[in-house]
Amino acid sequence: MIENQKIKPAQVIGPLGELLTIDSLPARSTTRWVVRRKAEVVAAVNGGLLSVDEACDRYGLTLEEFATWQRAVDRSGMAGLRVTRIQHYKSLYERQQRF
């Protein structure tokens, strides 16, 4: 029976090495998404604290928007989440894929 149950951790390691809990995640009403907040939500999902659906519902995100954040972190780390650098990191990634 236990195999069928989803057990969520009480805390996960955040992007800066700090412990994240449900209570320490960005507020549900967050509208200004700085790099740290985006990275915290991605870390919470990657660590199992939230599911993708829960994160999207909680923060009013589309699946595509969250997937973009997750891809940016996977490819370039937290720096990839900077709005001013998205195009730079995107073109860098595309060049790396060609070679």
Essential attributes:
99 residues, mainly alpha, two-stranded antiparallel ribbon
Walk me through this protein's architecture.
The chain is mainly alpha-helical. The protein has one domain: Arc Repressor Mutant, subunit A (Orthogonal Bundle), CATH 1.10.10.10. The protein contains four helices and two strands, in the order ββαααα. The protein has helices spanning 35-46, 52-59, 63-76, 86-98; strands at 12-13, 19-20. A two-stranded antiparallel sheet has the order 1-2. The longest helix is centred in the C-terminal third of the chain and has 14 residues, at 63-76. The N and C termini lie far apart (48 Å). The model has no long low-confidence stretch (mean pLDDT 87).
Brief rundown of the structure:
By secondary structure, this protein is mostly helical. The chain has helices spanning 35-46, 52-59, 63-76, 86-98; strands spanning 12-13, 19-20.
